[in-house]
Amino acid sequence: MITLENHTYSSRVGIFGECDRFIVAQRSVIDVRGSDGAYDVPTSRGGDAVIQVEARVTLRIEGSIINLTAGSGLSPPEPLTSGDVGSDAFAGGDAILDLVVTDPDPLMTIKNAEISLTAGDGGDAPDGLPPPGPDTGGRGGGFTRGGNVTGSVASGGEAKATLDGRFMDLRNVQLVLNGGRGGHAGDGGPTASGDRAGGGGGGYSGGDGAHAVPDLPAVPGGRVGGMVGYGGDAFLLTNGEVVNISLSLMDVTAGPGGDAGRGGDAAG
User: Fold this and answer.
1) CA 217, CA 219: separation in Å to the nearest integer?
2) pLDDT at 217 over 60
3) Which of 7, 74, 190, 205 is most deeply packed, by most CB within 10 A?
4) How far apart are the first and last CA of the chain?
């Protein structure tokens, strides 16, 4: 059994390279696990779990198990910034299997094998905190207090399997690919009973509720655009002249998107 883990946040872990022959056989088990996101925006994305091999002559997987499990994005307990959040912060990592045979007359054989690719879930946005005092507004829920949220923030990771060879024979293979779930939006912070202030806004960047003492308006939340909270894709790509699949199970499921947040209760 080979187990590969990476404790460097947001990085890839796996098997990479080129060779003449790549053979996994005789009840071998390969388990690759990406790390979860760390408590910091730049390292909040889950790590990828990858096998990416190019064999020149032979590629054979027989009587063995391969598991690729990517890390999930960070679910912070509170907003980590008041600025903009973009790119792939808080997103789940990808699970990637990329097998290529380059010989002019090659054969890729996968028999009596179990292969599982599980992408990481996107991180959940934190709920807004209660107000710091009486007659003050509830805090907004989200990854940021008022900044814009764009890109693929909190999206689920992708599960991607690519098999590339002129002739491919897949027999009695169980191949399961699961895209990651999108991260849920946060709820707004409530106010206490008897307070005259507003509840916080929910979402990925909810604003703070209005204060009664002193009389201050609500703080608007930021804009949200792009693929924030999207579910991760899952797909199997085969590229060859002859692809024979028999007595096999192929289960490919994309991840669901994240749930919306709700505004905080104003109980005054």
Assistant:
1) 6
2) yes
3) 205
4) 61
